[in-house]
C-alpha cells in the first residue's frame, strides 16, 4: 500500500503522521494508498520551509526564475502521459480527458514563462518638475493554494506557476481524495531547478486548511472547491488579514434558442453534461430549451446517450469513468429518486447503463431529466455528477431570467445562429464565463477564470492577468535626484507643478 506523504523543503516528509486517509481507485473500488492528513505541527513545518525559502527566491532574477519555468514546462510536457495516468488512477476520469486536463495545465505554465514582461511596472517621467513616479510589483510572501478533487493536476497549476513566477513561495494543499498528482508535479518542479522550499505540498483535510487560513505567516490563499467551503475559506482567511480568492461551485445553464443547430446543441449538451462524469465546475447541468425546441432537442440528446461507453478510464474506447467515491456516487444517485418524486420526467435512467469495468467501481451512468422545474432539488443543487436536467422556457427573456435568478454564476452558454441574440445574451447574463455555441467556455491561460455570485468570493479571478495581480503587491515610488534647484523646507502638501 503506497503511503502518500507531504513534500516539504524539496523532499518527501519522513515524519510520523498521526492521521491518514484512504485513497481509492474509483474504477475498481480498491484502496490503493494511504495519504497523510496533516496536524497543525505539519502545517507549521511546511509554512516554515516556505518562509525560509522566500528571501532568496524573491531576490532571484526574473531571468533565472523564468528559466526554471521553461524547464518545468519541458518536463511536464515530457511526462504528461504519466501524469494523466496518475489522475485517472485516483480520480477515475478517462485517460483522454486526463490528458486534456494536463494540456490545459501546461497552458498556465506557458503563460507564467512570460513573467519578465508580466511584472513590468509603469514609469512617468517628470510627474512633477524633475520628479519621476514609477510602480513596481512585489510578491506577497508565503501563499497557500487549496484545491478540489476534480482537477488534481490542472487546478493546482492554475495557481502555482504564477505564484512562483511572481516570487512567492507556496504551500499547496491538494484534495485528499486524489493526492498523488501534486507530489508527482512537485518532483518535476525540483528537477526543473526550483530551490527547496519554494513549493511545498501539504496533504490533509480541514485541519490543514484551517492551519493555513489562520497562520500568521501565510499572506494569501487561492481556493477552489464547493461554495459552502469557499465562503468559509474567504471569511476565515480575510478575517485573519489575508488576501483570498475562493472559487466555488456551479450550476451551468446552456440556453438553446429556436434557431440553433440542434445537432450541434445536442452534441454539446452530451459532451459537456457527461464528460468527466459531470464532475467539472464548468459542466453543463441544465439545458434551457426555449420553445418550441424542447421535444426535438430531448430526443436528440437521448439518442446520443445510449451510445456512450461508460467504464474504466484505462480501457480503450471508454468515454466516461466512475464517480470519485462510493459516497459521492450514492449521493448523486439519490437525486434520481428525488427528481422522480418531485414530478420531473426521467428520460434516461443511468442506473441501468452497461459498464465496461470492475463491478466494485463507483459507477453511475448518464441520466437525463426533462421538464425540471426551478423549485426541484435537481435544479437547486449542484449535483456534480452525470445528471442533466432540461428546463423548458417560453422565451429568450424567460431563459435569461432563469439564468440570472440562479445563485451560481460560473459558466453559461447560448446556442443560436442569431448574432444579435448572442450579443444581447453576453451583455445581459450575470455569469462570469460565457460561451457562444461553445459549451465549456474555460478561458485560455492568458485570460482569467472565474465566476460571479456564489461561484467566487473575492475580487480577482484565477490565473492570467488576474493571477499576476493577486500574487503581487504594487508599490509606487515618487523619486527626485537632487539638482541645484531644490526648494528648501515646505510644510504644504506635495503638489505636482
Ligand atoms: P470541497 O469543497 O469538498 O473541497 C475542496 C478543498 O477544500 C479540498 O482540498 C478539501 O480538503 C477542503 N475542504 C473540504 N471540506 C472542508 C471544510 N469543511 N473546511 C475546510 N476545508 C475543507 O470540493 P471538492 O468536492 O473537492 O470539489 C468539487 C467542488 O469544487 C464542486 O463544488 C465544484 O464546482 C468546485 N469546483 C469549482 C471550480 C471553480 O473554478 N469554480 C473548479 C473546480 C471545482
Automatic annotation (TrEMBL):
Domain Aldehyde dehydrogenase: 18-477
Pfam families noted in UniProt: Aldedh (PF00171)
InterPro entries from the UniProt entry: Ald_DH/histidinol_DH (IPR016161), Ald_DH_C (IPR016163), Ald_DH_CS_CYS (IPR016160), Ald_DH_N (IPR016162), Aldehyde_DH_dom (IPR015590), MeMal-semiAld_DH (IPR010061)
Keyword Oxidoreductase on entry: yes
Stored PROSITE patterns: ALDEHYDE_DEHYDR_CYS
PANTHER family (alphabetical): MALONATE-SEMIALDEHYDE DEHYDROGENASE
Protein name, per record: methylmalonate-semialdehyde dehydrogenase (CoA acylating)
Amino acid at each position: 500500500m503506497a503511503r502518500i506523504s507531504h513534500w516539504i523543503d524539496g523532499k518527501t516528509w519522513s515524519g510520523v503522521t498521526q492521521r491518514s486517509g484512504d485513497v481509492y481507485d474509483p474504477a475498481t473500488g480498491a484502496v490503493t494508498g494511504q495519504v497523510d492528513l496533516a496536524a497543525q505541527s505539519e502545517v507549521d513545518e511546511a509554512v516554515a520551509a516556505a518562509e525560509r525559502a522566500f528571501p532568496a527566491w524573491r531576490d532571484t532574477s526574473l531571468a533565472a526564475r523564468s528559466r526554471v519555468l521553461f524547464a518545468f514546462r519541458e518536463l511536464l510536457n515530457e511526462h504528461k502521459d504519466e501524469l494523466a495516468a496518475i489522475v485517472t488512477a485516483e480520480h477515475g476520469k478517462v485517460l483522454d480527458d486526463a490528458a486534456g486536463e494536463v494540456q490545459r495545465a501546461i497552458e498556465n505554465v506557458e503563460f507564467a514563462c512570460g513573467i519578465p514582461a508580466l511584472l513590468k511596472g509603469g514609469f512617468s517621467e517628470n510627474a512633477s518638475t524633475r520628479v519621476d513616479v514609477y510602480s513596481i510589483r512585489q510578491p506577497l510572501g508565503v501563499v497557500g493554494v487549496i484545491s478540489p478533487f476534480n482537477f488534481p493536476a490542472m487546478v493546482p497549476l492554475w495557481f502555482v506557476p504564477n505564484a512562483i513566477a511572481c516570487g512567492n513561495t507556496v504551500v499547496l494543499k491538494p484534495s485528499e481524495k486524489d493526492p498523488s498528482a501534486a507530489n508527482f508535479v512537485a518532483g518535476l518542479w525540483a528537477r526543473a531547478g526550483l530551490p527547496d522550499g519554494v513549493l511545498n505540498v501539504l496533504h490533509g483535510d480541514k485541519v490543514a486548511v484551517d492551519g493555513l487560513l489562520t497562520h500568521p505567516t501565510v499572506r494569501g490563499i487561492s481556493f477552489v472547491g464547493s461554495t459552502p467551503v469557499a465562503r468559509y475559506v474567504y471569511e476565515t482567511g480575510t478575517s485573519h488579514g489575508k488576501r483570498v480568492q475562493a472559487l466555488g461551485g456551479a450550476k451551468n445553464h446552456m440556453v438553446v434558442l429556436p434557431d440553433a443547430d440542434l445537432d450541434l446543441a445536442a452534441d454539446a449538451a452530451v459532451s459537456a453534461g457527461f464528460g468527466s462524469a459531470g464532475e467539472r465546475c464548468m459542466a453543463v447541468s441544465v439545458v434551457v430549451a426555449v420553445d418550441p425546441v424542447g421535444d426535438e432537442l430531448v430526443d436528440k440528446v437521448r439518442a446520443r446517450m445510449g451510445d456512450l461507453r461508460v467504464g474504466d478510464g484505462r480501457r480503450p474506447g471508454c468515454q466516461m469513468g466512475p464517480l470519485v467515491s462510493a459516497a459521492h456516487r450514492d449521493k448523486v444517485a439519490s437525486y434520481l429518486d428525488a427528481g422522480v418524486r418531485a414530478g420531473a420526467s426521467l428520460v434516461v435512467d443511468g442506473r441501468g447503463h452497461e459498464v465496461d469495468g470492475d463491478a466494485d467501481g463507483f459507477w453511475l451512468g448518464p441520466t437525463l431529466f426533462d421538464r425540471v422545474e426551478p423549485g426541484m432539488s435537481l435544479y437547486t443543487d449542484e449535483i456534480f455528477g452525470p445528471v442533466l436536467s432540461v428546463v423548458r422556457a417560453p422565451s429568450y427573456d424567460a431563459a435569461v431570467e432563469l439564468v440570472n435568478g440562479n445563485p451560481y454564476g460560473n459558466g453559461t452558454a447560448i446556442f443560436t445562429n442569431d448574432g444579435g441574440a448572442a450579443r444581447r445574451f453576453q451583455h445581459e447574463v450575470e455569469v462570469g464565463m460565457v460561451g457562444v455555441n461553445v459549451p465549456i467556455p474555460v478561458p485560455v491561460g492568458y485570460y482569467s477564470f472565474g465566476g460571479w455570485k456564489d461561484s467566487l468570493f473575492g475580487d480577482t479571478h484565477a490565473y492570467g492577468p488576474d493571477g499576476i495581480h493577486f500574487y503581487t503587491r504594487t508599490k509606487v515610488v515618487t523619486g527626485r535626484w537632487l539638482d541645484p534647484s531644490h526648494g528648501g523646507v515646505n510644510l504644504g502638501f506635495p503638489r505636482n507643478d
